[in-house]
Design a protein that fits this description.
Blueprint (H helix, E strand, L loop, with lengths): L4 H8 L9 E2 L10 H14 L7 H19 L6 E4 L2 H11 L7 E5 L8 H6 L6 E5 L9 H8 L4 E7 L11 H11 L2 E5 L11 H4 L3 E5 L11 E5 L1 H4 L42 H17 L1 H20 L5 E2 L11 E5 L3 H10 L2 E2 L1 E3 L2 E5 L6 H12 L2
């Protein structure tokens, strides 16, 4: 089923008037749909009179988020721990996965810092080392070198961004997950730049940990996100930080001082409360919208528009396409380097085309609400027409 983009924009993004701004920057911050803004407003209105917010409303809001996230990625809600950003989940992985002296964590160069610094800081404390894989020609990840690393008996963790923030390169994480499972290697995935515009089934990938913030392609408020922990690993992972609600029995607020240092038996042992309930109320509305639209329909629409940008860049003298041309290795990001990228970025801004300049490249991020006209306007601005 194809997207009715006109109806979507009218209902949820009315400011995206054809003559107004062109928003191609969800890789930085995704716009909040009107239903999410309404949910935030309603919760914040209640927050002004907190006697109207029972505990049940707060915790039912979080339970609903776990349920919706689980539906989106093909998991069970008990496998989901809520957090405020992607980095929290990467820290959980770096601090709680079983690592010891002599173990190696492999991370590729060019990764977003949130998937590098936690490993550099926490792995050595446990005697493990971090190995940085050089990039391949063209500045893209070297997937063959990564596959070879999986076969190294010392390697215990492979940490990747599903989609690269500065290249748009998308790993085949189903294949990578299969290779890691065959060798007993823990796969940790930063999913923030792919989830929302590319379908994902953790049952096929079976990562040890997968984390994503909600503020980009999931079109959710700042301060919303989640971490998936594979259920067979939960019992072996001790939370690196301790929340008072991470233990069994803590839902009974009338019996809190009978201390029982027994972890919950699901991913909630990794949650740090108090969480921003209002942000998760907004996230719920956005996730409901994405699920209504359908992951496959969003992906097909995005791939078509991304394909237009890729074809233009490949046929344009003087423009270097950073993002892979192969559809299997791209998601919603197109990175390209025209002559005078800084000047082109200024021109895009002046003509109302929201984008990013990352690592010397123009980064255009296409979502389900974008149109052919949006892509055409971006191309016209890059060309200086």
């Amino acid at each position: 089923m194809s997207l009715d983009v006109k109806a979507l924009r009218a209902a949820e993004f009315p400011w995206m008037d054809p003559a107004g701004a062109v928003y191609l920057n969800s890789a930085s911050t995704g716009p909040i749909p009107r239903r999410a803004a309404n949910a935030l407003d309603a919760f914040n209105a209640l927050r002004q009179t907190p006697h109207r917010i029972p505990d049940k409303l707060q915790f039912d809001t979080l339970a609903r988020t776990r349920e919706l996230v689980a539906r989106l990625i093909g998991a069970a809600s008990r496998d989901i721990a809520l957090g405020t950003n992607t980095g929290y989940g990467i820290n959980v992985a770096a601090g709680a996965l079983p690592l010891g002296p002599g173990d190696v964590v492999v991370v590729s160069e060019g990764e977003f810092p949130a998937n590098v610094y936690p490993w550099l800081a926490l792995a050595p404390r446990r005697g493990a080392t971090v190995r940085m894989l050089p990039l391949a020609a063209g500045g893209l990840p070297d997937e063959q070198a990564l596959h070879a690393a999986v076969d190294d008996p010392a390697v215990k963790v492979i940490a990747v961004s599903w989609v690269g923030f500065a290249t748009g390169y998308r790993y085949d994480i189903v294949d990578l997950g299969r290779r890691c499972r065959a060798r007993g290697v823990h796969l940790v995935v930063d999913a923030i730049q792919g989830l929302g515009v590319t379908p994902l089934d953790v049952g096929q990938v079976q990562p040890a940990v997968l984390s994503s913030g909600g503020q980009k392609w999931l079109l959710s408020p700042w301060g919303s996100g989640f971490t998936y922990v594979r259920p067979d690993l939960v019992a072996a992972m001790q939370p690196p930080l301790v929340s008072w609600m991470a233990v069994r029995g803590s839902d009974d607020f009338g019996n809190l001082v009978h201390y029982d240092m027994t972890w919950r038996d699901d991913a909630r042992r990794f949650e740090m409360v108090t969480l921003p309930f209002q942000d998760f109320a907004g996230m719920n509305a956005s996730l409901e919208l994405l699920l209504e639209l359908g992951s496959d329909a969003i992906a097909a629409h995005v791939q078509r528009l991304v394909g237009e940008l890729v074809r233009w860049a490949r046929g344009r003298d003087g423009v270097r396409l950073v993002t892979p041309a192969e559809p299997a290795h791209r998601a919603g990001i197109v990175c390209l380097v025209p002559p005078d990228a800084g000047g082109v970025s200024a021109r895009l801004n002046a003509t109302g085309v929201a984008h990013s300049l990352r690592e010397g490249a123009i980064r255009l991020a296409v979502h389900g609400f974008n149109t052919d006209d949006d892509v055409a306007r971006a191309i016209e601005a890059i060309e200086g027409r």
